[in-house]
Design a protein that fits this description.
The structure holds two protein chains of two kinds. Chain A is an alpha/beta fold. Chain A contains eight helices and six strands, in the order βαβαβαβββααααα. Chain A folds into two domains: about 140 residues, Rossmann fold; about 60 residues, no CATH class. Chain A starts with 5 loop residues before the first strand and ends with a helix. Chain B is built from eleven helices and 17 strands. In chain B, helix 7 runs antiparallel to helix 8 and helix 10 crosses helix 11. The longest helix of chain B has 17 residues. Classes of the chains: A alpha/beta, B alpha+beta. Chains A and B meet through helix 2 of A and strand 16, strand 17 and helix 11 of B.
């Protein structure tokens, strides 16, 4: 193992990076995790997130094989079909000789057949069981204190004239950004989102437990 | 024009037990942490290109300061030097050895053959000339397993390096001895130095090390390009950093060292802004480095250009233009390029230049597996590399 090794979390984009950075640092005290993104969405690329992730997984598994990365996990959106997405990801791990490894909590982990590499984690937003994206996670685990503001945002979008807003994924995004815009300190970033969530919600507890097992 | 190598496989060389670079580009960038094997790849290519020229291997050993004086015997000292090229710094079983190249183009296999000297009776007819001598020393090849037995019994063990070189493109294959320890006077007989002849049809290669190339070597290289179109290419490349440079020449000058007075040829530049020649070295490390790279490129047509730590001496803002030149000249001169780097600026400039020269550039990350010690190679095509760079990903 090299002396330049790191603990790495790969997430989809910059907003997810902000959310996980503050969640790991401030809620879980995991300050040494290097968070990187895998989807070049700001670079004019098209295509869904999963294709970028499936390209990245073998590259990152090479890094953990060399010891340059000691602890590794990926967070992606389940989007419209959790079963389909997780099947593709499990195959990508199998192609590199990594097999499913029970962690004793929600969330996937994979371990190399050699047994000398730490388990590599995978979590599909929102709950690693349901279809959806990170915004669905925020909406479902919204704290009681924030609920009125979120409900107001939802009501304001109910009769929005633009059709694309009514699509579930876009609707969740629009609701989340509206909710954030109506805060005392309006924002469009997910950095402090963890403060607005219910830490006893099963999804939140599940995600935290998975993170703590991947980054002990 | 086809590439010299489509794939490169290296086995048993230096720290590389087994490494394979697949689908090579015309310009290849090698990245990875210290001791990942990047420089060993460049060295392996020199051994392959030169068909195992022991003088090249001796040069590599000197670069690593592996030639250690003061050993108890010249035999042991020469064996140390040769042994260091084998994986694990020890001679393997006959049949294993070093293997470099691919199965479609060029390939070399180098094996070590241990032997002892043994006395045999001399035939009567020899006695007529030397009546006082009744025996002579001859070589007897032994197995690797027997080395320890012979050593403990007080026999000195000698080695010969045997190479098998194959050029699949021309269908030519040859087997020859690279080096052999002399049983009579305890010295190493090397191809190119001793009775073993140098191979004439080796592949050209140019090597730009991390340190500056000496002026003597540079002036010899310059003599090969002066008054040719290649001279202009060198000057054009230097203009990337200093557009003031109009012309170059090597000029014989006196040494400033009064204790070791001698003359030497030094590179001088004519600048558009000056009426007198200026020492090229005074224009900065960047110009000197670029001069070395340019001069090496134009002298290895149809061969390999090998650059160790590309970024040395080159400011990041100039690196994209230098890569553009290298991409262009690699096609023009039919050169396959291998460069190493530790610099994210170098990777970024390579990625940018590679996307402007489709299907020429490729990057490889090298690492060593913590599972079995074997090389772990990740290949990045130019578009993928550009994506990663644009996302701020560090692939060094």
């Amino acid at each position: 193992m090299t002396n330049q090794a790191s603990r790495r979390l790969i997430v989809e984009g910059e907003q997810e990076k902000f959310f996980f950075k503050t969640m790991l640092d401030k809620r879980l005290g995991l300050t040494s995790v290097d968070i990187q993104i895998y989807k070049p969405s700001d670079l004019g690329h098209t295509g869904n997130g999963i294709s970028h992730l499936l390209t990245l997984i073998p590259e990152e598994l090479d890094r953990i094989k060399t010891g340059e990365v000691t602890h590794l996990a990926f967070v992606a959106d389940a989007d419209d079909n959790f079963i389909d997405q997780i099947s593709k990801i499990r195959q990508a791990f199998a192609n590199k000789d990594f097999q499913p490894h029970p962690l004793g909590c929600t969330g996937d982990a994979f371990i190399h057949s050699s047994g000398v590499i730490n388990p590599v984690g995978v979590w599909l937003m929102p709950s690693h069981q349901d279809s959806g994206a990170i915004e669905r996670f925020f909406i479902e685990s919204c704290s009681a204190e924030q609920k009125p503001c979120l409900d107001l945002a939802q009501a304001s979008l109910a009769h929005h004239p633009c059709n694309h807003i009514q699509n579930t994924r876009w609707h969740d995004k629009a609701k989340t950004y509206t909710w954030l815009a109506w805060q005392k300190k309006p924002t469009f970033g997910y950095g402090d989102m963890h403060k607005k969530l219910d830490s006893t919600h099963p999804w939140m507890m599940g995600l935290e437990e998975w993170l703590q097992r991947i980054y002990p | 024009m086809s590439l010299l190598l489509n794939n490169l496989e290296i086995n048993g060389f230096r720290g590389l037990s087994s490494l394979k670079l697949e689908k090579l580009g015309r310009v290849n960038l090698l990245v990875g942490r210290n001791s990942s094997g990047k420089t060993s790849v460049l060295e392996a290519l020199q051994v392959l290109s030169s068909q195992g020229d022991p003088n090249v291997m001796l040069g590599l050993a000197h670069e690593h300061e592996e030639i250690i004086r003061g050993r108890e015997s010249a035999t042991r000292y020469e064996a140390d030097f040769l042994e260091n090229f084998f994986h694990g710094r020890s001679f393997p079983e006959y049949g294993q050895g070093i293997s470099i190249g691919d199965s479609e183009r060029l390939h070399i296999k180098i094996q070590a053959i241990p032997f002892i000297r043994t006395e045999v009776d001399i035939a009567d007819q020899d006695l007529e000339h030397e009546p006082s001598v009744r025996t002579k020393w001859v070589r007897r090849i032994i197995s690797i397993e027997d080395i320890r037995n012979y050593t403990s019994d007080g026999y000195p063990v000698f080695y010969a390096l045997e190479a098998t070189h194959t050029d699949h493109a021309s269908g030519e294959a040859s087997k020859f001895t690279l080096a052999s320890q002399d049983i009579d006077n305890d010295t190493l007989i090397m191809r190119g130095r001793g009775p073993v002849s140098r191979r004439a049809n080796s592949t050209p290669f140019g090597y730009v090390p991390t340190t500056f190339i000496d002026n003597e070597t540079l002036s010899s290289s310059w003599d090969l390009v002066v008054l040719t179109e290649r001279e202009r290419k060198v000057i054009d490349m230097i203009k990337i950093i200093d557009n003031d440079v109009v012309d170059l020449a090597f000029v014989e000058t006196d040494s400033v060292d009064r204790y070791r007075p001698r003359t030497a040829r030094r590179p001088m530049a004519r600048l558009s802004s000056s009426s007198r020649p200026i020492s090229l070295g005074s224009l900065g490390d960047g110009v000197s480095r670029l001069f070395q790279i340019a001069l090496t490129i134009v002298n290895c047509r149809h061969g390999f250009l090998l650059i160790d730590e590309f970024e040395n001496g080159l400011h990041y803002s100039m690196q994209k233009q230098v890569w553009d030149f290298i991409f262009a000249l690699s096609s023009e001169f039919d050169i396959q390029v291998f460069a190493t780097t530790h610099s994210s600026d170098c990777i970024a400039s390579f990625a940018e230049s590679a996307t402007n020269h489709p299907e020429l550039g490729c990057a490889y990350h090298l690492g060593q597996s913590i599972i079995d010690g074997k090389a772990v190679v990740t290949r990045y095509e130019e578009d993928r590399l550009k994506d990663l760079v644009d996302m701020g990903r560090d692939i060094r």
